[in-house]
UniProtKB/TrEMBL annotation:
UniProt-recorded name of the protein: GTPase HflX
Pfam family, one: GTP-bdg_N
Hflx-type G domain ranges (all copies): 186-374
Residues the record lists as binding Mg(2+): 199, 237
Protein family membership: Belongs to the TRAFAC class OBG-HflX-like GTPase superfamily. HflX GTPase family.
HAMAP family noted in UniProt: GTPase_HflX
Amino acid sequence: MQETRTESTAVIAARSTDPPVETTEIEDLAAARGYDVAATVTQAGPEDPGTYLGRGKCEKLAAAVAETGASLVVADGDLTPSQHHGLRAELPDGTELFDRYRLVLAIFERGAGTRRARLQVELARLRYELPRIVESADEGMLNKRTEKGSPVYDVRDRIDRLEAKLDSLPDPAEEFRRRRREEGFDLVTIAGYTNAGKSTLLHRLADDLSVDEATDGEREGPNKDATASAADRLFETLETTTRRATVGGRPVLATDTVGFVSDLPHWLVSSFSETLSEAAAADAVVLVADASDPPEVFREKLEISLELLADQGVDREDVVTACNKTDLLPAGERERRLAIAAERAPEAVATSAREGTGLDRLRSVVGDRLPTEEARLGMPNCDEAMSIVSQAYDRTTVENVAYDGDRVTVVCRGPPTVIERLRARADAIDG
Ligand SMILES: Nc1nc2c(ncn2[C@@H]2O[C@H](COP(=O)(O)OP(=O)(O)OP(=O)(O)O)[C@@H](O)[C@H]2O)c(=O)[nH]1
Ligand SMILES: [Mg+2]
């Protein structure tokens, strides 16, 4: 008898020409999407052009689905539309069938934080689904493909609308970055493989005061300084995945990104180029790597990640690797992962986002990579000078403030745009 179906239970189907059939990665991807993997059916042998797995294995797979009550089968391959149709027909009624790409889309669906990214994911999914809908359509349905209300017509129509909408939508990230630069904030992007711990790390790095808390809690009076109000204005345009953090004593905006996944087809990656290009605009990139992976997996993912970042235009010098989940490793293994990472990117720091360790070191190493300028500002000691000193304390690292008679001199280091503005203000009163 069939058990009740569980929304999030999946059975994996994997094949490869040569044994053994490797299933760790597809299982990890399914887990990253939040599915419980209840069973795995593998086949070593040639691919069946009609049903992906051979007949006997299809029966085994169907039995595993029925037995576990799974609602979904994930096939570790790129199924053609006709294989998708053929294999699905072998499964218990109502079983969903994902191939590797569809699973990746599901992961991206969950990771898409902005409206634009959500539209991009939907567009990629519909482009993926259209040939499969056509494949499973009967003749009657296909004859109606130009009629409103037919599945094929509706999907095509939605694709057209999404394309038009995406074309017309301004890129909020672009506008945000422009304003961020004007305000003198540095942008730190958190990138890395899916499930490495990026979101957990962002949460840890973020300043305690979230936007909501800042507006719900005690409001500061009208004297609230210029920096805070500038930050508030910026936050209005921020996506939920960007948080304010303090790194190397400087206020930065840290942005979470969609996780990398191995072996993505080109068409899929290009659908998200904008979402992924977030890293290129950053002043520093924290590359989060799962140090609890076996050393060779860790090394390979790290290399792929660095290549992907380079493809997006990220300078390797701007990358800091966070070897994360070190709480799961004995000390000797930790050193081994750090050595692997240090060979490939300029800086590597051991972290545990879960336990909150290594974060101070990470902040300081990232801070050292942010563009920094030093200034010595001499000006007459007046109200405006005090306001300049206060802004310097707020937005830069002040190394010294010296009062000498009726003059004040500030030595500070910080983001070039902020330094430039302070210098202009000081010059204006120094006549
Ligand atoms: N043991 C341990 N687990 C961690 C650590 N950091 C994150 N995790 C866990 O790893 C899983 C994935 O963490 P996320 O922060 O969601 O990973 P992510 O990189 O944002 O994943 P995607 O958004 O799917 O790309 C969660 O179950 C976390 O609790 C860590 O330092 N140690
Ligand atoms: Mg995440």
